[in-house]
Design goal:
Oligomer: heterodimer
Domain Nitrite/Sulfite reductase ferredoxin-like (chain A): 52-111, 344-398
InterPro entries (chain B): DUF2849 (IPR021270)
Helix content of chain A: 25-40%
Protein name (chain B): DUF2849 domain-containing protein
Strand content of chain A: 15-25%
Pfam family, one (chain B): DUF2849
Helix content of chain B: 10-25%
Organism (chain B): Ancylobacter rudongensis
Structural class of chain A: alpha+beta
């Protein structure tokens, strides 16, 4: 965990006091809605269909137990007893009252949590791998660099009014769990042949109305040059990004229109002028950030202790272990994913009680650390293998041990028309119904890894373009319809899905998805061939023929 | 698709003016008396674009009670019972269409 200092605490307290004053002036009529709206948005407060929504940043998806417990408190006292974890590693409270928001924010600020820059045309929460500092795959802790970017970008005056919002993601592992190729800037941390740490820099990725996979503009940027190079990108975007048309304002449109090569040249020219300036990161500055990350004091343990071996004789535990537990870089420890996708429940939602259970378990078994993944699940990154049986039993009792991580009912879904003022169609009930079709987890395991992503509108908060099966809700003549795509993926081989065929009605979606899955089971080369690979091998046509013949 | 507030007004049936209450975001409906009510049954119902625009203009004069007023379709059955006119408004009136976590 990163340890915030007195500056951070004082800043948040001042910010809450400022917002309290703004809310007071709004309620008294001293501020109009037009004056107040940008102020509330800068603090993560949206007005949705039937209530205010507070979006809280979880920097690079890392939380401690005290912070999660405080979120449970806010959910219980100021909301309706639950929260929704998002595809940007944040949490949203859907029912907060404006008049109570300052108190809720003050409570969150006490544990270093806030909603600043979770809205507006600024640099948003920098996201990264939820397995950071735990996975043996990575070359460095990507959160160090995310924290450097957080400090640099927070309230940065030059980048507070960008043409449009700006999202950065970092991975330091070969397998990309942070979806860096569909972000405005994607950073792949790796070492060059000389062993030096640096970033491959991708720009212009994104989903939404006009989806693009990011283009690589620099194969290796020395890590210490991160800020100056990002600043050069931001300046080029700030100068040339369109402000006349909201639909063409993201950096992906600029990169697409002028080409990655031209964009890269502009960035390099800007960078040449500033690279040796104040933003050059010294070893001391990097070390200072690094030193503020407190890492667990791992015991010297061996892999597969006797307690684990014995527990694996229980088939239910063994099933969960195979699905939800991953290798850790330290012997005797594991990474545990906590599914927030119990069959039939809203994806990504956790009750206050469940948050408290996870906070307690993180304290007892996981060095007080919790992560949020963009797949809308939680993670305990550091659990001793000998503790896994007890952890599983406690998670099971809280309804948090569904062994469906990465399976067909581990569905990403945005809030959709059930909450969101922008949505055209529902997403959560569609996810629930699909999940129920595959409630038999033996069947889901037989299908294997399959990511279904659902968005309730073209803004694509549910990342439908990069779902193995993507589902986009649209509205036609007052009715909900859904477009289905196949073959999208968000990992290091990121690509956009291909449209399967005409949109289908709300009622038809679960059956159609089931038919797609059944078709895959018939067509796959064998159990080893994943859904995404079968689609890559055969294209969508065989699926289209079978599925639309049935509908 | 643009949000209802941004759409060009077309009135093909009964409509009402709706908004969110400033203090808590609750869904409210413009009443005949020129106030706001959380009950759809209290809403002023009009059937022409001119009447709807007039209702909307009146609603927008003061933004201390309700935020973001717009014209929303409603239904009125033979008994005069008023209901929300599309799925969006049904959800605004009745809440999410699934059981909330508890």
């Amino acid at each position: 965990m990163y340890a915030y200092d007195e500056f951070d605490r004082a800043f948040l307290a001042e910010r809450v006091a400022e917002f309290r004053d703004q809310v007071g002036r709004r309620l008294s009529g001293a501020l109009s809605e037009d004056e107040f709206k940008p102020l509330r948005l800068m603090n993560g407060v949206y007005l949705q269909l039937h209530a205010y929504m507070l979006r809280i940043a979880i920097p690079y998806g890392t939380l401690n137990a005290a912070q999660l417990r405080r979120m449970a408190h806010v959910a219980r006292v100021y909301d309706r007893g639950y929260g929704h974890f998002t595809t940007r590693q944040n949490i949203q409270f859907n029912w907060i009252k404006l008049e109570e928001l300052p108190e809720a924010m003050a409570s969150l600020a006490e544990v270093g949590v806030h909603g600043i820059q979770t809205s507006g045309n600024c640099i948003r929460n920098v996201t990264t791998d939820q397995w950071a500092a735990a996975t043996p795959e990575e070359c460095d802790d990507p959160r160090i660099w995310a924290e450097i970017l957080r400090q640099y970008s927070t309230l940065h005056p030059e980048f507070t009014y960008l043409p449009r919002k700006f999202k950065i993601a970092i991975t330091a592992a070969g397998h990309d769990r942070a979806a860096i190729k569909v972000h405005d800037v994607g950073l792949r941390l790796h070492r060059n042949e000389a062993g030096e740490l640096g970033f491959e820099v991708l720009v212009g990725g994104g989903l939404g109305r006009t989806p693009f996979v990011g283009k690589s503009i620099r194969p290796f940027l020395p890590a210490r040059e991160l800020l100056s190079y990002i600043e050069a990108i931001m300046r080029v975007y700030n100068q040339y990004g369109r402000r006349d048309n909201i639909y063409k304002a993201r950096i992906k449109i600029l990169v697409h229109e002028i080409g990655a090569e031209e964009f890269s040249k502009a960035v390099e020219a800007e960078w040449a002028a500033i690279r040796d300036g104040a933003l050059h990161l010294t070893d001391e500055a990097i070390a200072e950030i690094r030193d503020r990350f407190i890492y667990p004091s791992f015991e010297t343990l061996e892999n597969e202790p006797a307690a684990l071996t014995e527990a694996l004789k229980d088939s239910r535990f063994a099933t969960w272990h195979r699905n939800s537990v991953q290798a850790h870089k330290v012997p005797g420890y594991s990474i545990v994913t906590i599914s927030l996708k119990p069959v039939g429940a809203p994806p990504g939602d956790a009750t206050a009680d469940q948050m408290e259970v996870v906070a307690d378990l993180a304290e007892r078994y996981g060095f007080s650390e919790i992560r949020v993944g963009h797949e809308q699940n939680l993670c305990l990154p550091h659990v001793a293998q000998k503790d896994l049986p007890a952890l599983w039993a406690a998670l099971e009792a809280a309804g948090l041990a569904t062994p469906n991580v990465n399976l067909v009912n581990d569905i990403i879904a945005c809030p959709g028309l059930d909450y969101c003022a922008l949505a055209n169609a529902r997403a959560i009930p569609v996810a629930q119904e699909i999940a129920k079709r595959f409630a038999d987890l033996d069947r889901a395991r037989g299908v294997g890894r399959l990511h279904i992503n659902i968005s309730g509108c073209i803004n694509a908060c549910g990342h439908h373009h990069v779902g193995h099966i993507g589902i986009l809700g649209v509205e036609k003549n007052g009715q909900e319809f859904y477009q289905i795509t196949l073959g999208g993926r968000a990992d290091e081989h990121a690509q956009l899905g291909t449209l399967l065929g005409p949109a289908v009605s709300y009622e038809q979606v679960p059956g159609l998805v089931e038919d797609v899955v059944d078709t895959y089971m018939e067509l796959r080369a064998g159990p080893h061939e994943l859904f995404i690979d079968t689609v890559a091998r055969l294209g969508v046509e065989p699926f289209k023929e079978r599925v639309y013949a049935a509908h | 698709m643009a949000a209802p507030q941004q759409q060009k007004l077309k009135v093909n049936g009964p409509v009402a003016v709706t908004a969110n209450r400033l203090t808590d975001g609750a869904v409210v409906w413009r009443t005949k008396a020129g106030g706001w009510s959380v009950e759809l049954v209290d809403a002023a119902i009009v059937t022409t674009a001119d009447a709807a625009l007039a209702l909307l203009a009146e609603a927008g004069k003061r933004d201390l009670d309700a935020v973001g007023p717009y014209v929303a379709p409603v239904t009125v059955d033979d008994q005069g019972t008023i209901g929300p006119g599309n799925l969006r408004e049904r959800i605004r009136v009745a809440g999410p269409t699934f059981e909330l976590p508890h």
